Amino acid sequence: MSKGRSPFLTWMLVLGMAFLYVPMILLVIYSFNKSKLVPVWGGWSVRWYVELFQSPEVWSAVMLSLKIGVVNATFATILGSLAGLAMVRFGRFKGRTLMSGMLAAPLVMPEVITGLSLLMLFITMQDLIGWPAERGFTTITIAHITFSLAYVAVIIQSRLVGMGETLEEAAQDLGAKPFRVLTDITLPRLAPGMMAGWLLSFTLSLDDLVIASFVTGPGSNTLPILIYSRIRLGLRPDINALATIIILVVAVGVAIAGIIMMRQQRQRDLELSRVSDG
């Protein structure tokens, strides 16, 4: 039965991989197109990479996106971790249902509604207290933290539920103070989840277009906004070059993460074999 199904599963795997990666391969190939017209092949050339690296507008957008991503991921991880701890470790408390609904809202709310509501909030605050004076780095970062911390909270809650409370209770029975238990046991065990939440928040920030377009102002274009604005004016080969660089960076990051995970797995297997032999 398994032999009869294996060719079908193999073809499904091939088709699925082709569906995902053939467009990326074509994009990389056409990033070396010499022609100014994207659909017309004019020969191999790196002219669009040269123009891309000489564009201050592109690098300004890249630096802004990276700064927003780092700040957003850091604060979202801190706030989301605290929220996850409160939801799992504090038991039932007054306002827990409301807090749970507020954490879940950014996950299911359409981005258009979220962006519009944040825009109205910033306009109202500017009228009342004069802050923010302009929309840009600060408003985009606050908007990204608003929805990113919800994802972090979900990850931390799942991690805490899987961890259980056995070690924490044992440490308390041995006389450890709550803060010592938090810093020496809970947080180290939460570190993988917190790192996953940080990376997810950073990725969501770099990828966001809809919400950022509502809360940004003149001269504060993130990378997704810049790419979208250029595509609206017509496809240009330098966008293919930029996308190729992004794909390369992501591929290198995934490869490094895969190598680290493989080494850690080998180390764990080696330790288990030593224990079993001993």
UniProtKB/TrEMBL annotation:
Subcellular localization, as worded in the UniProt entry: Cell membrane
GO BP annotations listed: transmembrane transport
UniProt membrane topology term: Multi-pass membrane protein
Protein's name in the database: ABC transporter permease subunit
Family according to the record: Belongs to the binding-protein-dependent transport system permease family. CysTW subfamily.
UniProt organism field: Hwanghaeella grinnelliae
Protein keywords: Cell membrane, Membrane, Transmembrane, Transmembrane helix, Transport
PROSITE patterns referenced in this protein's UniProt entry, alphabetically: ABC_TM1 (PS50928)
A GO cellular component annotation in the UniProt record: plasma membrane
Lineage top rank: taxon: Bacteria
The keyword Protease appears for this protein: no
Membrane spanning stretches: 12-32, 68-90, 102-125, 137-156, 198-219, 239-260
Domain ABC transmembrane type-1: 62-260
InterPro entries tied to this protein: Bact_Polyamine_Transport (IPR051789), MetI-like (IPR000515), MetI-like_sf (IPR035906)
